[in-house]
Structures are given as C-alpha cells and as structure tokens.
Specification:
alpha/beta
C-alpha cells in the first residue's frame, strides 16, 4: 500500500486501530497505566459511560459487575424512557443520573453510567436511527451536566466515545498517548476542552475480550493511600494516639468529622458488622464521602469483622482498614485465618488490624462473659505478628468492652509494655479497645507504652441515647442535640489522646 501511495495512489481506510501503528511504523508499547501517565490524585472517582449495545459489550459489562460488585456504583439510563417517554420524564431521568454521578465522583467512587441492556427498536431503519440519536444525546447531556473532574473517563462504543469527546467534553484536539489495551487508545484532552489534560479512554464496541473493561478499570482503580497507616505513623512519630469512634448514622458521622475539624485532629470512623448489616452500603458511602471531603485525616474502618465473606465484601466496598477478629478461635486457627484474609486485604492495599486475647464485656449486642476473657500472651503475639504480617494488633490487658466495674479498670501495664516492644519490633501498631471509662492518667500511661489507637463507643453512644430521653420540639431538634452531645464527648477524647492540634491549618494526609 505504501509503495502504491509513493506512485500517487490515495486510499481511504476503515480499519482496526492496529492498522494505524503498522502504517506509520510505530513499535509495540505496553499498555499505559495511571502511573505511566503521572495521574496525580485519587480524590475523584473514574467515570465509565457505556452506550454500545453489541453482545460483546454486554458480556464485558457483566464481567465488570462480577469483578466489582460493591466498589463501583452503577447508574442505568432507561432507554424506553428516553426513546418514547415524555419530555418531562426524559429531563427527570437525565437530571437524576447527572446529579447522582456528580455526588459519587466527588466522593471518590468509580461510577458506571450505562444504557439499559434490552434493545429497543422501531418500525424501520429511520425509527432505529432516531432512537439511537435520542439515547446518544441523552448520554451527552448527562456528561455535560456532571461538574466534577473525573479521574479518567472511559467511553464504551464508537458513537458514544466520539460524541462524549466532542459534544460533552467540548474537545477539538486530543493527544493519543498510547493504549490501555490493544485497540483501546488513551487520549489526553486538549486545553480547549472542559477538562484539559483529562485521560480519555476510547473503547470501541466490538473490541477486547469479555474481561477487557474490568481489566482497564482494575488498573485505573484508585489504589488506597493507606490513610489508616499514615495516620498511625504520624501518631507514633508524634507520641500520641488516635481515636476510633463507632458510628451508626449521619449524626454520628457528622459528630466525629466536626469534632476532628474543630480540634485539628485525625480520627477514624469505624463501623461494627451489626451496624453495617443495618445501614448497608449507604452508611459506608456516607463515611467514605465524609472522610474524603474533610480537611483533616480521616480513615474508615471495619470494626470486629468475624465473618470472612463480610470482611472481603467490606474491602470491595472501599474501607481503608479492616479488623479481622478471630480471637474467639484457638490460637493456631486464629493465626491461619487471619493470615489468609490479611494476604487478600494487603493485595488491595487495605490496612489490617487483628485481635489476640479476648476482651469481656458487651458491644453492639455481642457479649463476652468474664470467664471467657483471656489476656494477650507476649510469646503468642510475637509469633502471630511474624506469621500474619498484620499492621495493628488489638490486645487484652484487662480492658473491657462497655462499662468498667465500680472499682475501675485493672490494666496490667507490665504486660502492655512487653506487647508494645513486640509490636514495635514487627513494625505494627498497638491498639486498645474499651477506651470508654478510662481516666486521662490511664490513657496517658497506655500511650507511653505504645498504644496508638483507642476504640471508643460506649460513652459516645450513651451521650446520644441520653438526649433522646429529653423532650424536644421536633425531630431536627433531637438530631441536633444528639450530634452536639456526641461531638462534646469526641472532642474531649481527642484532647486526652493528644491528637488535638496536630493538623490545624494542614492539608489532608
């Protein structure tokens, strides 16, 4: 063909993407990743827009959903509604999806906007063309209304990728950087576009294996910055501790965030499995969104995960940190199960806390009797940390969940000192549950021996419940008073833990 062109022939080519590189003599380059491109931040979510209807695309979408059942949010555009609904229903559909996508992307959640998969056809080719035009214009309008700058935009389908680039993104120029996969180019949008420099992945409808979209999304997914580890490293370097507060609703989340902001302190939002079963993904999403938008370091942690599948699901849902609590099992079984789950968590860059020893007391409806209590054995702790490679260890030194007896806590500081030395040797962090009811002097002594995370639940929850018993004007008054009561307790804890003022006027970790 080149020889013919040299003799004056001209050709118009409709080909696969690989033809272009062969024609101009480009050598093969490995697929590009965000690291190659220097994509600088994980603050906003990635946006995947699927307009293609071909069977291959549907299989690819199914594979994506199977691989990311919880960590990606799905928004479906109803084609029947767009194709044959009223102007009002069309506008409502577009407005709902664009607003939802804006909120999700701002919260750092990767979001898929896809057309419903049932193919809608008209009476003839002209009708079909009109339906396609309506659907394409609806996708364009949705993306035009999204104000958040996505971490990347993947457009699936030839017409979809063309229209979104030129009409929704207002791009007239783009630099082809390379490929995400063979036949799937990555553009960098021009300076004249709505989002200059944004990576734009052009994914034709009939290209790639069934797992192709999932492979790209996995490589472009926001790898956790291990904010939980960073928070505790800062605490270790500064010789203070961080408060982890159990939350059950929006008031609890707001109380922790507000107290942390006012005190200039890091904090951890933690969800117990019983609260997770009640609040489901909505509670997790609220915590993640609040953490990402706070101007102080906030991590989101799963507390006391005992069910392996629930823990793995929590990792998929976007928790920064998880606790594997197999303390009810014999030592060897606790070690093996914790080790197995830790490998899975670390492969996703998720921080892991485990428990060795057994605390008595009651938390969220789960009770451990005094005769079941077992202090943490230093020899076992050394083996456990060496074998499991967990990042933090919750220990039992006489601390309890819930309310301490009238004569107060009887903590064994000599044991705590030994455990602190062992966790330090293994580059792990020491955690103490049952901080409600501990005096400031006791807490300072614990911090001196290496405790970097205190779990607090009972005192905050009691403050909330107490306000419910007091007469108020209406529900908003109840909510406001409950939030203020919890915030007061939380702020006081942050002061006692020594974390107040550590992040005043500082950016998020």
């Amino acid at each position: 063909m080149i020889q013919a062109e040299l003799k004056g022939r001209r050709f118009l080519c409709r080909t696969a993407a690989t033809f272009v590189s062969a024609r101009i003599g480009l050598k093969y380059k490995a697929p590009l990743t965000p690291t190659n491109l220097g994509v600088p931040t994980c603050k906003n979510g990635g946006l995947i827009v699927v307009g293609s209807y071909v069977p291959k695309t549907t299989k690819q979408v199914e594979a994506l959903r199977a691989q990311f059942p919880n960590s990606i949010h799905w928004l479906e555009l109803s084609v029947p509604n767009i194709a044959s609904g009223s102007i009002i229903s069309r506008e409502s559909e577009i407005n709902h999806i664009s607003r939802a996508a804006d909120a999700l992307l701002a919260a750092g959640i990767d979001t898929v906007i896809m057309t419903s998969r049932t193919l809608v056809t008209g009476k003839d080719d002209s009708d079909n063309l009109e339906i396609n035009s309506k659907v394409s214009s609806a996708l364009v309008e949705i993306v035009k209304r999204i104000q958040v700058y996505p971490r990347y935009l993947l457009a699936k389908g030839g017409i979809t990728s063309s229209d979104l680039a030129t009409k929704a993104m207002k791009a007239s120029k783009a630099e082809v950087l390379g490929q995400a996969l063979p036949g799937v180019p990555i553009w960098r949008l021009g300076a004249e576009s709505r989002h200059p420099g944004m990576p734009y992945i052009v994914f034709p409808g009939n290209v790639g294996s069934s797992s192709a979209i999932a492979e790209i999304v996995a490589s472009w997914s926001c790898k956790s910055l291990q904010i939980a580890k960073n928070i505790l490293l800062e605490a270790a370097n500064g010789h203070y501790a961080v408060g982890a507060f159990n939350v059950y609703n929006l008031e609890g989340i707001s109380s922790v965030i507000s107290a942390a902001k006012d005190e200039g302190s890091p904090a951890i939002l933690q969800i117990h499995p019983t609260a997770l079963r009640h609040g489901k993904g909505a509670l997790v999403a609220a915590c993640i969104s609040a953490a990402k938008t706070a101007n102080v370091p906030i991590a989101v942690h799963l507390d006391h995960g005992t069910d392996e599948q629930e823990i793995l699901d929590a990792i998929d849902m976007g928790f920064d940190s998880i606790m594997i609590d197999c303390s009810h099992l014999p030592f060897k079984e606790n070690l093996e199960r914790t080790k197995r789950i830790t490998i899975a968590a670390h492969s996703r860059n998720v921080f892991v806390e485990a428990e060795l020893g057994r605390l008595s007391g009651t938390e969220d409806g789960l009770t451990v009797e005094e005769y079941e209590e077992k202090l943490t054995d230093p020899i076992q702790a050394d083996e456990f940390l060496r074998e499991t490679k967990v990042d933090a260890l919750a220990v039992c030194i006489g601390n309890v969940h819930g309310i301490y007896p009238k004569d107060g806590p009887k903590l064994k500081f000599d044991l705590l000192q030994k455990l602190g030395e062992i966790t330090s040797k293994h580059n792990s962090f020491l955690v103490l549950h049952g901080a409600s009811g501990l005096s400031p002097d006791v807490i300072k002594e614990c911090i001196k021996h290496g405790v970097r995370k205190f779990n607090v639940n009972t005192e905050v929850r009691s403050a909330y419940v107490t306000t419910l018993r007091e007469p108020k004007k209406d529900l908003l008054d109840i909510m406001s008073c409950a939030q203020d009561a919890m915030k007061t307790v939380i702020a006081e804890k942050l002061k006692v833990f020594g974390s107040s003022g550590k992040f005043l006027n500082q950016a998020h970790v």
